[in-house]
Design brief:
heterodimer, A: mainly alpha, 14 helices, globular, disordered N terminus, B: mainly alpha, ABC transporter involved in vitamin B12 uptake, BtuC
Chain lengths: ~350, ~325
């Protein structure tokens, strides 16, 4: 931005004043959008706590949250809906953050972690741990996180050849992802019908098995890596200008990118370990945020909130709006598909980034 | 130079054919029970023999034939797609065409109550064709046409969307899930003569069209203007070849489920062997694909004994590294 302001072409460039007001207006728009999204997230959280097979009044929910014992609501709200809603919100935030980081860094709106094979790594490891090793609970999550990081690291290393080229990373990621999906399908084919239900979650993503014990690791990941991405977001947007420009603006490109990849992959892996790969959330949050806040400015926080909104809203729809109870990943996948195709056509037509 | 190349092609032909014959022989001989040469000969020579070994051989013959023909179809369609789109990463699996065929079949099973191959082969072909057109339109919209990365991303994204749709159709229908398992991972294990009889006309038609299109594809490789200057009707050549590719991979998917990476890996290796003349690349890709899938099927039967590993999984594990090598090459944008 500052580089633009200093461009020495007075005849073409608008006066600095109008640039400044335009910038301020965009900043205000971002602030408004972010505030609205935050309110929406909280409202959806409350809705998730109130609505279920039975309806709990908001005041009952509040009393449960404050730790009081409310007959008829303490169990359903405190033990069933609260972990589910919290897991959904945290996973949504993680997917949103991870997705927008990858998309901005690789300068391609399609290059989200679910498309380039990162979440597939975490999923494959989790399915393996459940079906072959017979493990469960936190161990599975740990394995999924480690595997997600390992897969991302190998994609990164394979793509690294005289500096990491974005498009190469994407192509290798797609290849690795395809291979891992074959592994997941194979493991599912081998399992008994009883285990398939549990394992299917690792294909589509679901909040059905959200439990209190699963929340702390995810919460810690969001609390640690979220602010890191927030701090790095400025450099992230300089990276968007291209490697040469970023270097000349004083950004250590390789180190920044490594940090960003680690944080983004970590978030995606922790979220996948908690809920399975919820389709398209990482993919959609960033582009929608970009549409809402307009050009310029950081999309990191709005994307995180949008991720949470997408997951919570889709989970409500999947549970109650349709005849059958669908896992959240199916809803986001089906809802996301038309937007995806629209986005693909629009991106390609404007010739952006590629 | 000329003599070296003219010598290389016959040698490669003999080598690939030899490997195919070996793979086919192993495919008949190997399995949960290993057959001796003697038993093999009696199974073929004496129709009256009724031992276990002979029965095993007879059940493995349709399977081997299916592996050979499906592999040939996939290799050939991969070569055709790569030439038509002038894109080294074009492959029915990567481009999501297989998933499109799967979704169409699943919808047929779930909503129309279709259970038999002769009916859903049309669904598979339709799904494959629609997905192929969709992915190509998305991938080629905008500046620069269909670059490898745009096509691959369009394919991966469409695959993700279609997979979600498949889950949405399947999840409420437990009864369909069991029948669908076959549609998640491609395999030639369920081969029988009637299935082969149903797909053969499609495969033959596709193969003939594809091989006839070789000259046109050669001209297309020079660029549209030059091809037109050479008197080739570009649109016709491209559509003819694309139709043959869709026929081949749609029919193969209908009978064997989604098998990825055969169409990707084989043409690349073939081009290393015989150069870039499509009149050679196409038949060699068919041979190589047949060899690869038959070998993958045998490997799947041997390493997971007494169970089996689906051929589609073996090809994915073998083929993904090939994709990585291609992507690591510097000039991925050109073909």
């Amino acid at each position: 931005m500052t580089a633009l302001l200093r461009t020495p072409s007075p005849s073409v460039a608008p006066p600095v004043d109008s640039l400044r007001t335009a910038r301020r207006r965009r900043g205000r728009r971002r602030l408004t959008v972010t505030a609205v999204l935050a309110v929406l997230t909280l409202a959806l959280l409350l809705l998730c706590l109130c609505v279920g097979n039975t309806f709990s009044r908001p005041d009952e929910v509040l009393r449960v949250l404050l730790g009081q014992t409310v007959p008829g609501a303490s169990f359903t709200v405190g033990e069933l809906r609260l972990p589910r809603a919290l897991t959904g919100a945290l996973a949504g935030i993680s997917f949103g953050l991870s997705g927008v980081t990858f998309q901005t860094m690789l300068r391609n709106p399609l290059a989200s972690p679910d498309i380039i094979g990162v979440t597939a790594g975490a999923s494959a490891a989790a399915v393996f741990a459940i079906l072959v090793l017979g493990l469960g609970g936190a161990v599975v999550s740990g394995i999924a996180v480690v595997a997600g990081l390992a897969v991302a690291a190998s994609i990164y290393l394979l793509a690294r050849r005289g500096g990491v080229l974005g498009s190469r990373l994407i192509l290798i990621g797609i290849g690795v992802g395809a291979m891992l999906h074959a592994v997941i399908s194979y493991l599912l084919l081998r399992s008994s019908p009883f285990e398939v239900a549990a394992a299917l979650r690792w294909l589509t993503g679901s909040l059905n098995e959200a439990f209190w014990e699963g929340i702390p690791p995810l919460a810690i990941a969001v609390a640690a890596l979220g602010p890191l991405l927030g701090i790095l977001s400025r450099r992230l947007h300089i990276l968007e200008l291209g490697d040469e420009t970023a270097t000349s603006l004083g950004v250590n490109v390789d180190r920044t990118r490594l940090l960003l990849v680690l944080a983004a992959v970590g978030l995606a892996a922790f979220a996948t370990a908690a809920t399975g790969p919820i389709a398209f959330v990482a993919f959609l949050a960033g582009p929608i945020a970009a549409r809402l806040i307009g050009p310029g400015g950081s999309r990191v926080l709005p994307s995180a909130l949008l991720g949470a909104i997408l997951v919570l809203a889709s989970d409500e729809i999947g549970q109650f709006a349709l005849g059958t109870r669908f896992p959240v990943g199916v809803v986001t996948g089906v809802l996301g598909a038309p937007y995806l195709i629209y986005l693909l056509i629009r991106t390609n037509r404007s010739g952006a980034s590629l | 130079m000329t003599s070296a190349r003219s010598l290389r092609r016959p040698v490669a032909l003999v080598a690939v054919t030899g490997l195919l014959v070996i793979a086919a022989a192993l495919s008949v001989a190997f399995g949960a029970r290993i057959i001796t040469v003697h038993e093999l000969l009696t199974a073929f020579g004496d129709p009256g023999s009724n031992g276990i070994a002979e029965a095993a051989v007879r059940s493995r013959i349709p399977r081997t034939i299916l592996a050979v023909s499906v592999g040939a179809a996939l290799g050939l369609s991969g070569a055709v797609f790569q030439a038509v789109t002038r894109n080294p990463l074009a492959d029915p699996g990567i481009l999501g065409i297989n998933t499109g065929a799967s979704l169409a079949v699943v919808c047929g099973i779930a909503f129309l109550g279709i259970t038999a191959l002769p009916q859903y082969i049309w669904l598979a072909l339709g799904g494959a064709a629609i997905t192929a057109v969709l992915v190509y339109l998305i991938g080629s919209a905008g500046r620069g046409g269909a670059t490898p990365i745009k096509l691959a991303l369009a394919g991966a994204a469409v695959t993700a969307a279609l997979s979600s749709a498949i889950s949405a159709v399947l999840l409420p229908r437990i009864d369909v899930i069991t029948r669908f398992q076959f549609w998640q991972v491609g395999s030639v294990a369920g081969a029988d003569w009637s299935g082969i009889a149903v797909v053969t006309p499609f495969l033959v038609l596709g193969a003939v069209l594809a091989l006839l299109g070789g000259r046109g594809l050669n001209a297309l490789a020079l660029g549209d203007e030059l091809a037109a200057g050479l008197g080739v009707r570009i649109a016709r050549a491209r559509i003819l070849s694309a139709v043959s590719g869709v026929l081949l991979c749609g029919a193969a998917t209908a009978v064997a489920g989604p098998i990825a990476f055969v169409g990707l890996a084989v043409p690349h290796i073939v081009r290393l062997l015989v150069g870039s003349d499509q009149r050679w690349v196409l038949p060699f890709s068919a041979l190589g694909g047949a060899m690869l899938l038959t070998a993958a099927d045998v490997i799947g039967r041997v390493i997971a004994r007494p169970g089996e590993l689906e051929a589609g999984i073996v090809t994915a594990v073998i083929g993904a590294p090939v994709m990585i090598v291609i992507a690591r090459r510097q000039r991925i944008r050109e073909l």
